[in-house]
Specification:
The chain has about 270 residues and is of the alpha/beta class. Helices cover about 75% and strands about 5% of the residues. It has five helices and five strands. The protein has two domains: about 90 residues, NAD(P)-binding Rossmann-like Domain (Rossmann fold); about 150 residues, Helix Hairpins (Orthogonal Bundle), CATH 1.10.287.950. One of its GO terms (cellular component) is plasma membrane. This is Methyl-accepting chemotaxis protein (MCP) signalling domain-containing protein. Keywords: Chemotaxis, Transducer. Belongs to the methyl-accepting chemotaxis (MCP) protein family.
Amino acid sequence: MNIAIVGAGKGGVSTIKCFNNIKDITISIVVDKNINAPGIELAKELGIPFSHSVDDINCENLDVIVEATGNKEFSNFLKDKFESKCSIVDSKGTWLMMTLAERDLKALEKMDNQISIINDTANIVQSQVNEIMGSIEKIHTTSEKLLYTTKVSNEYIKESDNIIQSVNKISQQTKILGINASIEAARAGEHGKGFGVVANEVQSLSKYTEDFAAEIKGILLKLSEEIKKIDKEVNGLDSFSQVQVNASDKVSSAVDDLVEACDENCNH
């Protein structure tokens, strides 16, 4: 539908704003004798044709003339001039439309304000979600490094255990050697006393080595248990991080849907 708006005062401004937002209505021209009227200025901003004379109204491609001056005499003048060519909405009808337009405009302004607030909030939430995602990614990377470290530590413990077993074998052999040396010293009698002292020292060394190896093994066992605990906690942390990632993805998706919905409302 093509319409012409005559009168570019306050009522004309409201009428322009109202009809300009309706998809199936085209404002063909805005007319006011005051070329500096606010409605004319608005028409310039919106790219709507304008004029200071009603003679520029072309009824051939026009469906309705909306009289927004509120002047009864001028309304009668428009009827006399154009009523035979197209429909005319007089000042009363225009007043009703202006009232509805102003109400709708206030509702639209309120909605735009609310959508703007929602958009701002959504942007803040999105920013926070991005920060959380970055933090979670760092946690995940740290967890992977810790898991690798615990794996390497366990390998070292296994190697240390092999070394301790070798030390125990050497200790056992030294112990046997010491016993044999004591036996030979006893057989040698008086001449074997010095050798007997050495044999005793060898046995003492064997016992000390055996005890020391056992102590190290005990420490390594405790260390292994602690590493298992760390490994368990890291796995738990990794699972928790994944839960956070999934939750953040859902929040991010919801925010995107909210922004998209707001944009659609703004465009309509």
